[in-house]
Amino acid sequence: MYDQPKRQDEFAVGDTFGDQLVVAIVEADPTKDEEIVIDWTDTGVRKGVTYYYQILTFDEIPNYSNPLLFEATPAP
Prior knowledge:
two-stranded antiparallel sheet; mainly beta
């Protein structure tokens, strides 16, 4: 159902991956215990339609984690 990036695939904000869009890339210092919050609004949604999103983490190679999947349906 979801595409998974392959090892060493690199993306930039605005790139497409399958039918998905890269909306953010955040670099964090792994030696620090820091919370990262990303606010993003999908402005192209329609009421009553279900949308699926995924979040991935990656390292410097990059190796990708399994995606965190979630869905949202704006109220009709």
